[in-house]
């Protein structure tokens, strides 16, 4: 049997959620090792170009605001807390949330962490003043409009929804495959020390 065949078939929500969670649980340590320094321990960075919320102020006033961060990874919400907001950080992956908890231990800045799917938020309607995400959740679901609907549902009327995203991001998948292939072949002694792929942003690959 050829293990390298590419199949195209429909998957249901439950299967997609399992696969998505498994991917991020597996990748969590590598992701943080690769991007943790860039993201900072208590900071909010919107995108690979290095746009910081401290400069951009896309979220508006923060003091006292109930803010939900979707697909938080290691949780930029800690920075929001230092600005007087009342944030909640949510992610599908326990592996990513483990990094959020470790960062909280190191920095001493704690925010509530919730493991849930952005497609089915465990919050009441109008529970937040602001919902935000930096590259979280939206690129990794088939139906990005469903994330928009959930964000709208939990926002109070007039609330603000701010996100940075590329959708879909097939090119990352391609690069990840390349990266995995390089790692595998290195273990086998091939391609040793050769630079195979490099892109100049947060998903950069040092192969
Ligand atoms: C590219 S990382 C971004 C993490 C973080 N916001 C950052 O700036 O580094 C994408 C995050 O989205 C999370 N995620 C993916 N699908 C999700 C979903 N359906 N619901 C909630 N989180 C999800 C992943 O577990 C991962 O932590």
TrEMBL record:
Keyword Methyltransferase on entry:
yes
Q: Which domain of life is it from?
A: Bacteria
What Pfam families does the annotation carry?
Answer: Methyltransf_25 (PF13649)
Annotated GO biological processes are: methylation
Q: Which GO terms describe its molecular function?
A: methyltransferase activity
Which key words are in the record? Answer: Methyltransferase, Transferase
Q: Enumerate the spans annotated as Methyltransferase domain.
A: 67-159
Record PANTHER family: METHYLTRANSFERASE, N6-ADENOSINE-METHYLTRANSFERASE TMT1A
Its protein name is Methyltransferase domain-containing protein
Give the originating organism.
Micromonospora inyonensis
